[in-house]
Amino acid sequence: QVQLVESGGGLVQPGGSLRLPCAGSGRTFTNILMGWFRQVPGREREFVASISWSGGSTYYADSIKGRFTISGDNDKNTVYLQMDSLLPEDTAVYYCAAGPGIWEYWGQGTQVTVSS
Q1: In 1-116, at which residue ranges do the beta strands (DSSP E only) sit?
Q2: CB-CB contact of 33 with 100 (8 Å)
Q3: What's phi and psi for 90, nearest 5 deg?
Q4: SS3 for 36?
Q5: CB 4 within 8 Å of CB 105
Q6: Interatomic CA distance for residues 28 and 24, integer angstroms
Q7: pLDDT per residue as tens digits for the range 33-71
């Protein structure tokens, strides 16, 4: 079993930055994929970014490529989503997810609001 806890959400002005940590616990984080998704009310949850815990390979959605960066700290079992140049359309609940090739575990989500 894996527990994921996100934090770092909040209100930020357009053009600003936020960093979202997601702390994992409950098992050894090897050969696992970790990622971030986001969801706006009334819309489907969408993929944002992922990172391979063993090899460090990263993948990004086109909508955030060049603005967001995913990274991981193996010692802390924590994955980060650095969000720069935020836009109002980035407003959503951001969820951390993990799994051995499929998204099996989910965090509770953290709200990010981009508004002036």
Answers
A1: 3-6, 10-12, 18-25, 33-39, 46-52, 58-60, 68-73, 78-83, 92-99, 105-106, 110-114
A2: yes
A3: -85, -5
A4: strand
A5: yes
A6: 9
A7: 999 999 999 999 999 999 998 878 999 999 999 999 999
Helix (H, G, I), strand (E, B) or coil at 95: strand
Three-state secondary-structure class, residue 89: helix
Q: Given the structure tokens 């909508």, which residue do they identify?
A: 63
Distances (CA, A) of 66 to 25, 49, 63, 82, 83: 29, 12, 9, 11, 10
HSE, side-chain direction, 13 A CA sphere, residue 39: 12
